[in-house]
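re: that complex we talked abt at group meeting.

here r the seqs, copy pasted straight from the sheet so there may be weird spacing, ignore it
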Amino acid sequence: MDEMEWLDTVVYGEVTYYHLLIFVIDVIVAVVVAKAISVYLKKYLSDRIEKAELDIIIRILQVVVILIGFYIGLPRFEFNLADLILVGGTLTIVIGLATQKMGSNFVSGLFLLIERPIKPGDTVQVESVTGVVQKIHILSTIIKTFEGIYVRIPNETVFTSEIVNYVANVARRFEYVVGISYQDDAGRAIRVIQDLLEAHPFVLKHPSPSVFLDELGDSSVVLKVLIWCPSRVWWSVRTELLQEIKTAIEDAGTVIPFPQRVITLQEAPPGR
Amino acid sequence: MYYRTTASRSIEKILGSRGGRIIVNPVEPLNLPQEVTRYLEFHFTPIVVPSESEQRIFLTFPVEIGVFLQDKRGFTVIDIFSFAPQKYSLYGTPDDGVITRHVDSDVFDSVPYLVDPLATGVMELTIFNASRTQVEVTRAVFENASLNVYYGDFVAMKGRMEVYSKAIAETTTLLTPFREGMRAAVPLFASRQIALAEGLKYLMEHGVGG
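got the structure back, here u go
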């Protein structure tokens, strides 16, 4: 029993090592519980709630659980909560002034979570960085570029920059320009492309796709193809359809011409 | 081992579970070729419904078939396939609307003859016009959580649509068999362990016509 007597040693005021130990255990338990809640929610809700929303819920619950842990542990120090809030408030101001940039990033992070111009999983462009949002932390946003590069952007920069979110709307439009030779029947080529688009599941029925003769070019008759498709699959549709259009119009006997120029040679005048 | 071969594709899967049983039944037709939406949208010839009155019509929809493994823990989807083509559409605007599985259907006044019941199902839709004016209805959108599919000789659903104005309507499908003896299909939602609330409804806020 003597070995445990050190626990009764006073550290500060009436606070003993025992109180400190209990407080630390309290906080550790709160952290473990918060972690367990996170794992449990990820296991059972990941199929039902979008990852972005789940992350927010988990983060809020973790903060609440840890705060509760602190709150339960504090009375052992016999602190007056009002004093603590006063001291905490003062400290917040001091730390806030000292870490103004950090505070700005924090507030921007909160606004990003509230306004939600971007969310994890979105394909976005922030300033010169284009890629997929991985995480929105309290101070920074992580974007993985299409080359697989990790980019960390401070939230203040994200919030004050022009953001292009390629998937914020459920549907988006893209276009192809297809050149056919002057000898080919443009109407037939248009019908072939229309049939192909009609058969593709992700070329939206409404707004309907549009195929029309756009330009009489130098070397070809130019057809324009405008297609709406679900934003979630637009890139795969865009990459596979052009190949299919090329194959379909070639199978229909239409020629996609190379750039060409007709040169007329004038005969040299006699005597030269 | 699970094999499935169709004209366009073959798949092969090793099933880890030794117990359990395989269930094959129709599922909500919203999964192929890839799940991009929760909404099924019927487009049909305009139906004029007078104020405060009801109209019952029959529509057809593409069938998707799910293969489930049922064990002690519940249902797991192994495969989904279909003999019907797929098409998607947009209900509403790109910024405010939803992507929908698009179904173009003729309108019938009784259960239509189905050439291939494995490819096409029947929806009995009752449209009630609760507004003070006559409305022209050309579309009905259902959310997956409110789709209750039944099967027997063919696949069927019973739907109800309450029209409040040209712009607003509420849809749901009923938790009652289309015909006596038909069985309720295991919904994909069951495999995702989400409890379904009876009478779940979808509010169509982007119009019932056009």
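couple things i noticed - The first strand of chain A starts at residue 10 and ends at 12. Chain A touches chain B at residues 44, 47-48, 168-172, 199, 201-202, 204-207, 228-230, 232-233 (CB under 8 Å).
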